[in-house]
Amino acid sequence: MTVLTIRDALNSALHSLMAADDKIIVLGEDIRGGSGIKDGQELGGVFGVTRGLAAKFDARVIDTPISETAFLGMATGAAMTGLRPVVEVMFCDFLGVCMDQLMNQAAKARFLSNGRVPLPLTIRTTMGAGDGSGAMHSQAIYGMLATIPGLTVAAPSTPADAAGLLKSAILGDGPTVLMEHKGLYGLEGEVTDGLPPVPFGKGRVAREGKDVTIVALSSMVHKATEAAELLARDGIEAEVIDPRTVKPIDSEMILASLAKTGRLLVVAEDTAFAGFADAVISVVARGGFDRLKAAPRKLTPPDTPVPYGRKAEAAWLPGADDIAAAVRSLAGS
Amino acid sequence: MLTEGMTSLVEKGHFIRAFEGALARAFDAGEVPGLVHLSNGAEIFELAVMNTLRPPKDQVTGSHRSHGIALALGVDPFAMACEILGREDGLSEGLGGTQHLIAPDSGLLGSNGIVGGQVPLAAGAALSAKVQGTGGIGVTFFGDGAMNQGAVLETINLAVALKLPMLFVCENNGLGQSTAASYAGGGASIVGRARAAGIAAAHVDGGDLDESLAVASKLGGWVRETGSPAFIEASVPRLAGHYHGDAEVYRGEKKKVVDPLDRAGDLLLDRGVPEATLREIKTRVAEQAEEIVERAKAQPDVSDRALSRWTEGGAA
Predict the structure, then answer these.
(1) B96 vs A contacts (CB less than 8 Å)
(2) Tens digit of pLDDT for each residue in A13-38?
(3) Inter-chain touch B120–A74, beta carbons under 8 Å
(4) Which residues of A are catalytic?
(5) Which CATH class is domain A204-331?
(6) Which residue in chain B has the smallest CA separation from A84?
(7) A204-331: same fold as A2-191?
(8) How far is it, in rounded angstroms, from Cα B26 to Cα A16?
(9) Which CATH superfamily is domain A2-191 in?
(10) Residues B185-223: tens digit of each pLDDT
(11) Nearest CA in chain B to A112
(12) Fewer Cβ atoms within 10 A, N terminus or C terminus of chain A?
């Protein structure tokens, strides 16, 4: 066991996989960084996740012009022709720029070839509000991405899961979007030596409890766990489920928890309408209706873009107190 | 090019025309699920470009109008016909269809339903060839309409910036569906816009077989030798509608265009190939094409079975 930050766990996973397979390339904006600087002094991505790769793997670490459409499409074509590209899209908001290449090209190629063409493409991107980045550098669009047939979407909350899901994405044969929360890069956690892959579609019980099930992803897992500790003082034991993958979703784990608690709260940082929370509630309404003791609840940001001012942004994001309040009203119903 | 090779190329051109004619008749008979976009007029130019390629080391992407490109690359016409008709033994068992033909074994990385969407994908093939040192190149065909898409303009710049072995081929038929290229595109010329991005570029009359062979060989060879991208703009006539069945009321008075297939035939006659040989070629390939499309029509539609392999388990 070692303690690593999410940033270092991702970086370490990239180093070990790239050393083992020269078909793996990484590309994106500023992922080498620097204008001619070498020998490990490169920027290594604006969040430092690709730091040190250029010095070791030189030609397989490629800075691109600010052309998301062109470089995401290039990575898709490279994945169709023998490479295993890992693309960094600096902020998931920028996926709006290259939506055709994501939705029509990368996501559909395997289906349109009837499985003849593998598409081992990993798209690493960042998300998350809370740092004053405003409306176009702060979204969390995982629910929206998961509606696209052909895409696997994952959103880790711990260093072990971040490295493990990244490995599954790179070693897999389909396109995966890995959503990394900007606010979690420095989060430390224990990781198993060798950073084993984490399978898609398998959730994790972040905290056990018997009274209420909270389903949350990414940074919301930590807020939900914080809320659960507050609730425990009042004798309410909340179970926190981290599905880790948005699609495929671990319905089994969610329904099993619900069988125990009968009460569901979903906390999400993505859209208020037709987002991750609505998808989970749909799973539960269809597969676990008889287990529900109360109407499921969700806590999401309001249906507006991410605001900029500190007070507005704090009000916009679901917090531990909001979660605790929602659970209290649910537990009492 | 030797007369024998040129005769074979012209034969392929007639086969493509006949194949698409048979498809158009199948469409009229209600046998085709979607609309078909015919390559009529571009066959000779496309064959001239393929003449310089080495598939499958080289990988090609094309637009919605890619039947000719696929056949010119040597994709199995029966598997193609079955795919376009949505039948068993189609390239993708009917899941893709006419606008999404995929046959990488023959060098066709894919045709595409999004105008310009195929262009970045060919940059990926070029990057793969470069990183893996295969000596292959990425090639992309697109129309004048796509020259106004960000995907195309961005990829031209990307190919220059990353020094990718990639050949851009813009087939300018003067019309983006119904809208004139002269109306939709800024700048003096397409080739001029390409040059402004710092890419080696040339214009060619795509109806002139000799010139097309020379330009394709020169720029294709340059990409292969230098590892840098190049750009060809070819003027080709669109002899049919945007899609088969298009009434083309927008076209007004049609200008008289000489069919590039006839121009190529004249080149052969000049070289002493007997007219009877040309006639025999046309008859033979027409029969071949008809037979292939008829056989495809007799195939069952199993696309639902193909789909079910993708839906097992279902979404959450």
Answers:
(1) 112-114
(2) 999 999 999 999 999 999 998 766 77
(3) yes
(4) 137
(5) alpha beta
(6) B128
(7) yes
(8) 55
(9) Thiamin diphosphate (ThDP)-binding fold, Pyr/PP domains (3.40.50.970)
(10) 888 899 999 999 999 999 999 999 999 999 999 999 999
(11) B96
(12) N
